[in-house]
Amino acid sequence: MRGGGDYNLWGCTSLNCSLNTLLDPCDDFYDYVCYGFVKNTSNLPEGYTRKSQFNILWEKSDKEII
């Protein structure tokens, strides 16, 4: 890995869960990268108008603080 730093492996795992490896990224890059995220966040909790990686990180950090 570049720089040899301490990388956030949670983020890497999260990205791997959203990839649709059945698609060729050259044919449809958006669906290749975002398919799993869109599929897993299609049911929004009450009070949400959208859900993004920022919401997920916010909820994760709230749980760690409490």
What features would you describe in this structure?
The protein is 53% helix and 0% strand. It is mainly α. The chain has one domain (2-65). The mean pLDDT is 74.
Concise structural overview:
With 66 residues, the protein is mainly alpha-helical. 53% of the residues lie in helices and 0% in strands.
Helix and strand arrangement:
Layout: H1 9-18, H2 29-40, H3 53-65
Number of strands: 0
> What summary fits the major beta sheet?
none
Q: Percent helix among the residues?
A: 40-55%
SSE order in H/E notation?
A: HHH
| Number of helical elements | 3
How many domains would you count in the coordinates? 1
| C-alpha geometry | elongated
N-end to C-end Cα span:
34 Å
Q: Evaluate the radius of gyration.
A: 15 Å
Contiguous low-pLDDT stretches (5 residues minimum) are none
Pfam family, one: Peptidase_M13_N
GO biological process, one term: proteolysis
Protein name: Peptidase M13 N-terminal domain-containing protein
GO molecular function: metallopeptidase activity
